[in-house]
Amino acid sequence: MAHYPFSSALVTGASSGIGEVMARKLAAAGVPVVVVARRADRLRAIADEFDGVDVLVADLLTMSGQRAVVERIADADRPIDLVVNNAGFGTNGLVHELDPDRLADEVELNVAALTRLSQAAVAAMVPRGRGWLLNVSSVASFQPAPRLAVYAATKAYVTSLTESLHEEVKSHGVHVTALCPGLTKTEFQSVSNTDRYASDFPDIAWTSPEHVVDEGLSSVIANRTLAVPGTQYKLLSAAANVTPRWMKRRMSAMVQRA
Prior knowledge:
The chain has ten helices and seven strands. By secondary structure, it is α/β, with parallel strands linked by helices. The chain has a seven-stranded parallel sheet, sandwiched between helices. Helix 4 (100-128) runs parallel beside helix 5 (149-169).
């Protein structure tokens, strides 16, 4: 059984995918976990399986949902050691053809809600001199992504914000890491209308949610600024740092048209 330094955790987007695997792995290790999502039945299934799991049903697209999670993070009588901001979604397609309300919701969840919860986390952790914040970003944050333009832009924000917070609080005993997975088989594909990726990309391009979670947890414990699961994506992110922006745009557009 894995051993973690956290005495408690809170995971958003815990009803499926990376968030669900994260919540289950922490709970299996004996870490009390607050699981956050809209789908109460899925959260309760986790709570029924493990001891020490608290269910917090909240829609992070709403101000009331965000406030409920902020209040739980800020509760000094029940301190949270690890906050995992995993909730988010993407939208595939040409921006001029997409639903503007959906794109606004994407920005609200991926950017605004994550920012509010990140601020609440570090505000609670810095005075204690202890804490871990793991923000789930994406390798899409390292380059433009035509047809996933808003998603990539929101994740670029997440990575940048997280890097800044890492520097701000590292002297206070608080660890902040951006987890930047590549292609991972979760519900993300069906929600973002990218189901075709399963057949368009070879098996070597995919990472498992379990590997992504392990990389994220080990990296935030070690206080690494960025966690990029998979050798293929480590190489990709390194190449992105030295590739001219015009070339990254062209290459990304070619991949999407393939």
